[in-house]
Design a protein that fits this description.
Blueprint (H helix, E strand, L loop, with lengths): L1 E6 L4 H6 L4 H10 L2 E7 L3 H13 L3 E5 L12 H12 L4 E10 L7 H18 L3 E6 L2 H10 L5 E3 L6 H9 L3 E4 L9 H9 L5 E3 L21 H12 L3 H15 L5
Helix pairs in contact: 3-4, 4-5, 7-8, 9-10
The structure holds zinc ion.
Zinc ion binds next to loops.
Length: about 260
């Protein structure tokens, strides 16, 4: 069984590109080798949709938070954080996320992104929930802010960190999640990062509908394709496919405090 720890089934691409209703599609995934999915919210609307999805499917869970590329849309940070706090009380919410910094798109000014990131790391600590971190071309600032925040437990989603940063983060007890990007031809640094990541702190994800793994690159990604990522990680770690599935599945249950 595979646990896809980061997906966006609320994305309209599923609506427009699937040849069947989304619900039927997800039921098929769960009757295959997908044993769990966490749908990550990025703004209030997608957080609510994530929770709705988690209510429909037993093995679907939700993360709630404001993405760095969405935070500029909100003026009232205290009000929005209050709403996230309320949403997080739902029994299927297992994390605060996705939150972080995005210096690639820079949709929100960087000082604003940092204020939201800091506040949501505090919220995760307050609620005793792990945080799902988006870090795009902001490695130094993301690392510093996580390091300063005592008591927080994070997973770096769709790892793009260096092997050295992965070593430092995992030494602090944090987890690293690998997406289809580890299967890409130009993924040398991510392969080195996976080599550096202890097996006990490794998670897998799709970030679907984006980042479809090789050999499906550019197509609509979904949790059924996470096995290509698992195959690649098994190869990097020199273990069997069954072992990488079992280990990353157990890691996901432990990290997100999910009891089956
Ligand atoms: Zn995402």
């Amino acid at each position: 069984m595979l646990f896809d720890t980061h997906a966006h089934y609320d994305d309209e691409r599923f609506e427009s590109e699937l040849d069947k209703p989304l619900d039927d599609f997800i039921i098929e995934l769960f009757s295959g080798d997908v044993g769990g999915i966490i749908n990550a919210g990025t703004n209030i609307e997608t957080c609510k949709k994530s929770i709705e999805l988690s209510e429909k499917f037993n093995r679907m869970y939700a993360a709630v938070g404001i993405h760095p590329s969405d935070c500029y849309k909100y003026g009232d940070i205290d009000g929005i954080l209050g709403a996230i706090r309320e949403l997080s009380r739902h029994k299927k919410v297992v994390a605060i996320g996705e939150i972080g910094l995005d210096y690639h798109y820079d949709f929100s000014p960087r000082d604003i992104q940092k204020v939201w990131f800091e506040a949501q790391l505090d919220l995760a600590c307050e609620l005793g929930l792990p945080a799902v971190i988006h870090d795009r071309e902001a490695h130094g600032d993301v690392f510093d802010m996580i390091k300063r925040k005592k008591g927080v437990k994070v997973v770096m989603h769709s790892c793009s960190e260096s092997a050295e940063t992965v070593r430092q983060l995992t030494d602090m007890g944090h987890y690293i999640s690998f997406s289809g990007s580890v299967t890409f031809k130009n993924a040398k640094n991510t392969v080195l990062a996976a080599e550096a990541c202890p097996l006990g702190q490794m998670l897998i994800e799709t970030d679907c509908p984006y980042l479809a793994p090789t050999p499906h690159r550019g197509k609509l990604n979904h949790s059924g394709l996470v096995r290509h990522t698992a195959e690649k990680l098994a190869e990097i770690k020199g273990i069997s496919y069954d072992e990488i599935c079992r280990i990353t599945y157990e890691n996901a249950l432990r990290f997100f405090n999910i009891s089956e």
